[in-house]
Design a protein that fits this description.
Length: 303
Amino acid sequence: MAAIGFPAKLGQAQRERLAHIDFRLWFLGEVSRADICARFGVAPAGATRDLALYREAAPGNIAFDGRTKTYRIGASFSPLFDHPIDRVLSSLALGFGDGIGGGEGPMVPCEFPSPINRPATDTLARVTRAVASGSVLRVAYFSASGGESLREIVPFALADNGLRWHVRAFDRKSASFRDFVLTRVLSAEVVPGEVPGQGEGPGDDAQWTRVVDLELVAHPDSERPELAALDYPMADGVLRVRARAALAGYVMRRWNVDCSPDHRLRGPEHALWLRDPLSLYGVESAAIAPGYVPPAGEGGARG
């Protein structure tokens, strides 16, 4: 949480309160002592000191409205903190949650599709504890190809493909690295006394450690290709994406990127085209990339 204009020796709690002031001014246009007290549980006198410190650091950012006893955004506002856009959107949509009873609700009217395939919280907790501690898990897992089976896995990372959450892990049953859908993990228990063996760690996962550079452009057959430059952060007409090979196919599928060599896919959902399909050569997850055709000699991806 970077900040400018404040004393260097601010405590973390006060920095968070000042960032909250900055956030509310920038995105909601106003902030009050009551907002700070409700969010952080501080006394009104403490909130007053925070507002005074913020105003001292950036007098042009904040103006006091004596009629409503509210501080409003100043005419020459310039944010003093970095506010990553993903966190901004999450906060506006869900509120500032602390994990105790959830957030306080949307900060502005906001509608978005709710996830319909959330993993069980207890299962997620067991998996993340194993990731954090480097443990081996025995899981009952239901796969699309083989149904339910018991496996020992060595999990090391979570991944969100936009539709569902996976855990990336070494699967001792197939002796390979796989993505396990968390909702299909029926049970999970740490295997007592077991530790990851040689070749079972994230550094041994070639698809995880490999990073591919992908250049996306407006679909050549789009009726309004100029819209892609507005919808995506392009530079000189190119959206450059870096992704782990293990996840690249998911990224292409999530954005409906046409990965065919002759941009054959049609429809408004295919706003982007992968300019060089060969950039996915050897990427196992490319099997699910829309329109991707493996070059002759490339092995198929594991399912």
